[in-house]
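A quick aside before the break. I want you to see a complete sequence-to-structure record at least once, exactly as it would be stored in a machine-readable document. Don't worry about memorizing anything.
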Amino acid sequence: MKGYDLEVKEQAIELVKSGKSFTEAGKATGVSRIIVINWCNQNGLPSFSGIPRERQKALILAWAGKTATEISREINKNDSTIKRWCDEAGITLVKRNR
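That is the input. The structure line, written in tokens, reads:
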């Protein structure tokens, strides 16, 4: 099994948090999409087995620190749906003061 530098792992995770796909983050860091998914899972991102892509995107954005309102604008779902999805996945949404 090939070992990777911590720097590569952190870069891949940050790319996903910034909105890049697992594939894009893998290509940018020279690792496979599956490795990027595993690293993200090890760092608190839930597994996406059987989850529709739209919901996956919402969970990634929540994991990356977006609010329910920010996510709902990006994927065109209401805040309550985003909150429910995050609750079910065990992700705590960020709340920002207005």
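Two observations worth writing down. Residues 53-89 form one domain. Helices lie at 6-17, 22-29, 33-42, 53-63, 68-75, 79-89. We'll return to this after the break.
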